[in-house]
Amino acid sequence: MIFLDPRNDVAFKKIFGSDEHKNITISFLNSILELTGERAIASVDFLNNEQLPQMIDKKDNILDVFCIDQAGNRYIVELQVAHVKEFGKRMVYYGARTYSMQLGKGKSYRYLMPVITLSVVNFIMFPEKKHYKSIHYILDNKTHEHDLPELTFVFVELPKFIKKEQELRSAEDKWFYLIKEIKKHTEIPEPLESDEFGEACHALDRMSWSEQALNAYDDAFVRATDQESSMEIKYEEGRNQRTIEFALTLLKRGVSIEIIAEDTGLSIDEIKRLKKQ
Predict the structure, then answer these.
(1) In terms of domains, do 186 and 266 share one?
(2) 167 near 20, Cβ under 8 Å?
(3) pTM of the model
(4) In a shared domain, residues 138 and 243
(5) CA atoms within 13 A on the CB side of 11
(6) Do 35 and 66 fall into the same domain?
(7) DSSP 119
(8) Alpha carbon distance 211, 208 (integer Å)
(9) Does the structure show a pLDDT above 50 at 53?
(10) 179-232 tens-digit pLDDT
């Protein structure tokens, strides 16, 4: 078998955001959000892009998965491969925006339902955190009571998930292993053979995809690669600009060119040109 990469937008939406595989979405959300018993999600309905016109960002990206459960709770599931500046703030905005959009003109605040955002990222967001998953609530700062359940933010940092196939125990383990590692396999790993995990693996089998769907998959891969390259260029440009600004500050302070070159990595000639400017 040849498995497509679930970290591709098209593949991710196929297994986690389609009516065809609702049970996969339910299992994924329940395990990652640690919902059991009466709190568990029993059903979901997906909301289409036309219902979120204000959520389009500057890159014309739409939320990967947006659904509502039997109790009316809203779930935003976002996959992000390339490192995006201020990604955390973007997800807070999406969550808050989704929460406020529920309230139509003349409607009571009692109709507002909680919004949970779940972000799966292929980069390190919180270097100081050891665990790959963090759940952020609005809590009382003294008692840590969860009195305001209206907004919840969950971040999963895939690079921190390092469990091997033989170490998979929980449903959460299996989902993140599938997302991160299934593309490296040629057969369905034993821990993923049953239930929704096996269904997801079969849905990712390249042979089950139409030519049109594969073209969309390839296009998404190209877009993601271009986006990542663009971000790397912008990061490098920003870093160079900060270096130049630092060098100019040192020049104004009368620091010698030799010391500035040593501290910034700029050449003597570059610093001399800056001094003339």
Answers:
(1) no
(2) no
(3) 0.77
(4) no
(5) 28
(6) yes
(7) E
(8) 10
(9) no
(10) 999 999 999 999 999 899 999 999 999 999 999 999 999 988 777 665 555 555
Q: Over the range 106-126, which residues count as b (16 or more CB within 10 Å of their CB) and which as e?
A: eeeeeeebbbbbbbbbbeebe
The three-class DSSP label of residue 67 is strand
Cα–Cα distance between 13 and 251 in angstroms, integer?
A: 53
In a domain, 221, yes or no: no
**Range with the lowest mean pLDDT among 76-90, 106-120, 181-195, 221-235?**
221-235
Domain count, the chain: 2
Residues in the chain, total: 277
End-to-end CA distance of the chain: 61
State the residue range of the domain holding 145: 9-209
Instruction: With residue 69 as reference, give the H or E element that holds it.
Output: strand 65-69
The answer to whether residue 215 sits within a structural domain is no
Any idea what DSSP says for residue 80? E
Mean pLDDT of the chain: 86
Report the 10 Å Cβ neighbour count for 171: 16
Written as one letter, the residue type at 220 is A
